[in-house]
Amino acid sequence: MKSLPYFCRGEVIRGFGRGSKELGIPTANFPDSVVDFLPADISTGIYYGWACVGNGDVYKMVMSIGWNPYYKNTKKSMETHVIHTFKEDFYGEVLSVVMVGYIRPEKNFSSLEALIAAINSDIEEAKTKLELPEHLKLKDDNFFKSAASSSSGSSTTAAATSHTIMNGH
Fold it and tell me: Structure pTM?
C-alpha cells in the first residue's frame, strides 16, 4: 500500500452505537467526507497507527475500514479504537490519525465472541508493531502538532477546524 503512512483528520460523528455497548470496545467514527477521500490502494481491513483527539496526547490506535461483514453494513465506515481510556465521549472533537500499517482484511465471524476476540488480538498486534522504531517516530510527527495549534485558537477558528478535512501525506 503505497499510501501508507496515511494522515487524515475529521470531526468525530455518531456511528452505529455498537462499539461500546455490544463490543465493549469504543470507536470514534469519521464522517463520509473523510471515508470517501481514502486513496484507492487503501483496501478494506484492519489498520494500526496513531491517533490524537483535539489537542490532546497521541495514543496507539486500531482502525476498521469497510463494511463490517458481521453486521452486514451497507455503508463503508472508518472506525477508530484509540487504545486509551477516556473519561467521556468526544463527539464533535477533531480526531487526527496516521495509519502506519495493515493487520488483516475484513472478514465475517461466526459469533459476537469471535469478533471481540479478533479485535482484541488486533489491538495486541497494534501495540507490538507500534513499538518498532519506524512506527514510533510517527507518534511525534508535525501532523499532530498542527492539529494542536489549529484547534487551540479562538472559538471561531476551533469551530472552523472541526469541519476541515485533511487527507494524504
Answer: 0.86
